[in-house]
């Protein structure tokens, strides 16, 4: 009987660790989705579950993102970071997102985009939305040197991108 009780406790603890959700976010394991929308976040929350495929972190106060922002999230295929006031995207920010296919950075204030920011293994990134996000000419040049050859649907409206 004690053995059965210990197994139950262990399974309950393991399940709560696996299914944990960051504070101020909504998680749906069934839909493989995490939403952290308009929660006044200053950084990408930690503890996002590994099952996440769709990640929405929108309408917050995040000013910069880097490679530490998305550690352990290799299953994410769709990432929306719109309306966050992001001004800087560091080198290899998205390199750990091995399954990333769609990235929305629209309505941010991107002033610095490191040329290797969009480096994703296997070049899985197909859709990139930068509408109303490119803050200055430097960010456009940084983006141009990023070698985003695999994009099917580049969305960069807003007037600064020289290849529209």
From TrEMBL:
It comes from the Eukaryota. Residues 1-19 form the signal peptide. Keywords: Leucine-rich repeat, Repeat, Signal. Residues 20-54 form the LRRNT domain. GO terms for cellular component: plasma membrane. Pfam families: LRR_8 (PF13855). This is LRRNT domain-containing protein. It comes from Anabas testudineus. The lineage of its organism: Eukaryota, Metazoa, Chordata, Craniata, Vertebrata.
């Amino acid at each position: 009987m004690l053995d059965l009780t210990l197994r139950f406790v262990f399974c309950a603890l393991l399940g709560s660790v696996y299914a944990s959700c960051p504070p101020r976010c909504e998680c749906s394991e069934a839909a493989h989705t995490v939403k952290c929308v308009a929660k006044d976040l200053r950084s990408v929350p930690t503890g996002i579950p590994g099952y996440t495929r769709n990640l929405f972190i929108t309408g917050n106060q995040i000013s910069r993102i880097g490679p530490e922002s998305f550690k352990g999230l290799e299953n994410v295929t769709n990432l929306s970071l719109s309306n966050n006031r992001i001004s800087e995207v560091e080198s290899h920010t998205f390199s750990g997102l091995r399954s990333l296919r769609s990235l929305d950075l629209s309505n941010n204030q991107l002033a610095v985009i490191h040329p290797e920011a969009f480096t994703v293994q296997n070049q899985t990134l197909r859709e990139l939305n930068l509408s109303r996000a490119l803050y200055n000419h430097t960010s456009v040049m940084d983006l141009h040197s990023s070698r985003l050859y695999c994009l099917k649907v580049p969305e960069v409206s807003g007037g600064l991108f020289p290849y529209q």
